[in-house]
Amino acid sequence: MVISEPITKVNLERITNAIFAFTMTLLARDIVTPQEYEQAARITLDQFTFNTIGSIIDFVGIFVLLAMFWLLFFQMFHRMKTFDYHFLHVHMLALMAIVIIPFSSEFSDLTPEFTFTDFFFQINYLILGLILVYLWHYARSKPALLEPALTEADARNLSHKCLVPPIVAVIAILMVLANFRFGNYLIDFMYFVPFIIIAIFFGKLVAE
């Protein structure tokens, strides 16, 4: 059943924007500041490099990851003229997964070694990616929800884009499971991999 007023697509887009903005702001809380050292005056170069700079890299990486999800969600909205209650309910789950990201990413920084806490963020990331895939698959199965001008090629192209984040998340989970050597550095790089893949194989991410 197509949803009726007063809940419109514009309302859904607004709350989605608000959740992404709130979550991206929360990420800054994870940056290690001098107050977090026992004695700021005794910070060594190694401490600064591996803690503060490392946390800034994590911030940038997860911010980029969230920006990618934001772009994909709004590419999906752009191709829809309306939504139904099932879509709304599942989308609320997606927003919940988005809000949890700053907290799940903070768990992965507790130790320099891989532990069970690293799975928290990766699974959070995977769940969000799978919800995105499902939402677009569901929308495609309901022509009444889609813009009449949408072509099958365009819809399929967006489906392929949406598959990239969960595939990368699975690879990251396997790296954690394998306790891969130099894995922490590669995990940091994995934040940017979906953007790179989409840019190479699908053209620019924001292409309409």
Walkthrough of the structure:
With 208 residues, the chain is mainly α. The protein contains 7 helices and no strands. Helix 5 (152-177) runs antiparallel to helix 7. The two termini are 28 Å apart. The mean pLDDT is 79.
Question: What does this entry show, briefly?
Answer:
The protein is mainly alpha-helical and 208 residues long.
User: How would a textbook summarize the main sheet?
Assistant: none
Helix content, binned percent: 55-70%
> How far is it from the N-terminal to the C-terminal residue, by CA?
28 Å
Indicate the low-confidence ranges by residue numbers: none
Count of DSSP H/I helices: 7
For the record, the count of structural domains works out to 1
Strand content of the residues, in percent? under 5%
List the helices and strands and how they pair.
Layout: H1 9-26, H2 45-78, H3 85-107, H4 117-140, H5 152-177, H6 183-190, H7 193-202
Helix pairs in contact: 1-2, 1-3, 2-5, 3-4, 4-5, 5-7
Q: What are the key terms here?
A:
single chain; 208 residues; mainly alpha; 7 helices; 0% strand
